[in-house]
Amino acid sequence: MQNVDIYQLLLELLKPVSVPLNEGERIELDPAGWDQVFQLAAVQSVTPLLYDRLKGRGMLEIVPEEMRVQLKAEFRKNALRNLALYSELSRISKAFEAEGIPILLLKGAHLARGVYETAGLRVVGDLDLLVPRQDMLRSAELIQSIGYDGSHVFTEDWINSFKHLPEFVKRGSFEKVELHSTIDDFKKATTFKIDVFWDESVPANVDETGLLALSPENLILHLCFHNAYSHLFEFSLRPYCDLQTVIARCKDNLDWDRIVERAIEWDWARGVYLSLRFAAECLTADVPPGVLERLMSDQGMEEAYQVVLRQVRLVGLGGEVVLANLALYSEMNAVQRGRLILQRLFPARLEMAMKYGVKPDLPGILRVYPKRWWFILRNYSRSYLDVTAGKGTVTDSAVQKAAIVRWLYE
Asked: Are residues 96 and 104 in contact, defined by beta-carbon separation less than 8 angstroms?
């Protein structure tokens, strides 16, 4: 295979068709090279968008025929899956409307049809639905009554401890629903109140439903918050593609002053800055001059941005993305490390119930703890041992990641 930076090439190909490729319009890859591009796109959850970009640039003919057929099939598969999701969403909407419970769509549930040009361009994992906090328990009962499995007996403890209830899965199908009461993960002190999202919501324009969606400004802020604070940049290229698409779709009506002022007021400025800068510099999102400068509060942002660049690149390239707990572990003393390990091995019952879909009552909850231990042993023991011994690149990456985690939450 030619000496090509596959990750950088994927970034170039994901840019809007109107943006000339830095690599030039003529790209020559052998089948092995194209296979790597498509594998990386799959890991990054952007295969349908890549297909659309190649088609729009008239580049499909340079893709090996077998791969071109497969790429088109993946696009159609995602489109059909999303159509099924939206059909189910319409059914859910009617059931909730009959009970007088409003629904505000979050993330992919809104983006795929409300922002992207066609529903097949955006991969949607599940249906994230925001409902009023006072209606959460009633909503849980309702979603189960229309065919979704849920073994929990929900109480106010669930609502007060988590931003969403455990995932509901439709019986005999693939559709999954998460009911949210807020978007805040309770880890960061902030002046944000979910009421502003409801007060400024707009019609989602998804079929003939009464579904609501975030205003464009709040949508951008939520995408940045989810990427930065909920997932600490342990994500793929998809959220940056979302930002690029939202900005392009709504650019004539976006109130950037409101975005900046709220990011600062809610203490989200650092996460918003890093997310928007990546989308602007790597995917040519049209962020107006001065916006990033207004969000930049200190010099630490440049160092943090370089960490984000490295981490996003690692997704799917065989590198190890350092998770937040491992990063913080790298800076702890022996006593602190012991406490963290115990916390990860023995989370609170409510947290375990959420993660494994079981009731939090004893003694049944005890049966899932061995699953937790095996998962940690299989996936993270080597990394923790390397950091404990101060070995290799994992330790270096952990130290860098610890710095960005602390910086985000200062």
From this structure: no
Residues in CB range of 290: below 8 A, 6 or more apart: none
CA distance 402 to 410: 12
Locate all alpha helices (DSSP H) within 15-162, ordered by sequence.
31-43, 47-56, 65-98, 108-114, 136-145, 156-161
Please name every residue paired with 62 in a beta bridge, in sequence order, or none if there are none. none
Q: How is residue 365 annotated by DSSP? A: G
Contact status, residue 176 vs residue 170, Cβ threshold 8 Å:
yes
Report how far residue 193's alpha carbon sits from residue 264's, in angstroms, rounded to the nearest whole number: 14
Query: What's the Cα-to-Cα distance from 255 to each of 96, 120, 271, rounded to whole Å?
Result: 32, 28, 19
Residue for token digits 């020559």?
28
| Chain centre distance of CA 393 | 26
Q: What would the two tokens of residue 85 be? A: 């999701």
Q: Which amino acid is at 284?
A: T
Q: Which residues of the chain have pLDDT under 50?
A: 1, 24-25, 318-320
Tell which residue, 369, 368, 329, has the closest CA to residue 346: 369
pLDDT (tens digit per residue) in 50-99: 999 999 999 998 999 999 999 999 999 999 999 999 999 999 999 999 99
Angle, helices 392-408 vs 369-389, to 10°: value is 110
Handedness of CA 17, 279, 64, 125 (dihedral sign): negative
In 66-84, which positions are buried (b, 16+ CB within 10 angstroms) versus exposed (e)?
eebebbeebbeebbebbee
Predicted TM-score of the model (pTM): 0.85
Q: Tens digit of pLDDT for each residue in 288-341?
A: 989 999 998 777 788 888 888 887 887 655 444 556 666 666 667 788 778 877
> What are the b/e assignments for 271-282, b being 16+ CB within 10 Å?
bbbbbbbbbbeb
Distance, CA of 108 to CA of 304 (rounded, Å)? 27
Going from the C-alpha of 11 to that of each of 127, 275, 319, the distances in angstroms are 27, 15, 18
What is the three-class DSSP state of 148?
A: strand
Q: How far is residue 71's CA from residue 65's CA, in Å, rounded to a whole number?
A: 10
